[in-house]
Amino acid sequence: MAIEHTRLRGKRVLLTGGTTGIGRATLQLLAGEGARILTFGRHQEALDEALASANNNEVVGITADSDTVDGIEAVYTAVDEKLGGIDMLVACAAVGAEPIHEMANRDWRYVIETNLVGYLACAKAAIERMERQGGGHLLFVGSISTEIKAEGESVYSATKAGIQAFAETLRKEVADKNIRVSVVQPGSVDTAMQECTADEKREAVATQHMLQAEEVADAIHFILTRSPACDIVNLRIEPRIQKTS
User: Fold this and answer.
1) Is 232 helix (H, G, I), strand (E, B) or coil?
2) Residues 27-69: pLDDT tens digits?
C-alpha cells in the first residue's frame, strides 16, 4: 500500500523567526511548496527582505518579539485574521548566549524568554486552535547542544534542553487530540548566531564542519510531509565533522 504523504500546499503555517538563518531558509522552502505562511521577526528591514525572498503572495509577516506576552498575542491575532487558523507551527526563533556569569541579568533572562518561554507560549496558543479544528503539527527547532553540553553554552543549552523535554512530554499529552509534536536538532549551522567571520563559516561549510541553513530546512520539510500516521519525534542532523566540545 502506497504511503500518502502530507502535502503542504494550502497548509496554514506559523513560522517563528523566519527572517534569518534556518527560519528564512525554511520560509523559502515551504513557500515554494505553496504553504500559506505567517512569520515574524523583530526588525522590519529583515522581515521585508525575507518576505521578498519567499516570492509567494500567500506569505505574510509582522514585526513582533516572542519574548513578550503582547508579542505572542499580536502574532496569533494576525494568524487568526490573515490565515484563518493554523495547521502547523514551526518554532525556530532563537538567540545565542554567553556563559551565565558573563551576562547581565536582563540579557540571560531575555534568552530564556525568547528561546524557551516563547516556544511554550506559541505552542499553547497553537494547541488551543488545533484542538478546536481537529488536529495539527507542532515542530520545534532544538539543538544538539542539549546532548553535547559544550563549554560556553550553559544558558543556550538550558533553553534547548527545556524545549526537548517539553516536546517529548507534550506529544503524549496531545496525541489524543490528533496533534503531532516533533523536534529537529541541528548541529553547527552557517547562520548569524555563529561567532566567526563569513570567511570562516564558508571554510567550515566547505570542509563539512558546518551545515548550510538550507539543509536544516530540508529536514524540517521532511518532518512536516510525513503521513498523518507518522510522528518524527526527534531528528538529529549534523555536519559530517561536528565539533562536540
Assistant:
1) coil
2) 999 999 999 999 998 889 989 999 998 877 789 999 988 888 9
pLDDT tens string 95-133: 888 999 999 999 999 999 999 999 999 999 999 999 999
Which of helix, strand or coil describes residue 233? coil
Which triple of cell numbers denotes residue 136? 495539527
Q: If you write DSSP's letter for every residue of 92-132 in order, what string do you get? A: --------GGGS-HHHHHHHHIIIIIHHHHHHHHHHHHHHH
CA distances in angstroms from 16 to 3, 61, 148, 175, listed in the order given: 30, 10, 25, 23
CB count within 10 Å of CB 173 equals: 11
Q: What is the dihedral of CA 97, 99, 101, 106, to 10 degrees?
A: 10
Can you say how many angstroms the Cα of residue 228 is from the centroid of all Cα atoms in its chain? 20
Between CA 89 and CA 150, with CA 25 as vertex, the angle to 5 degrees is: 85
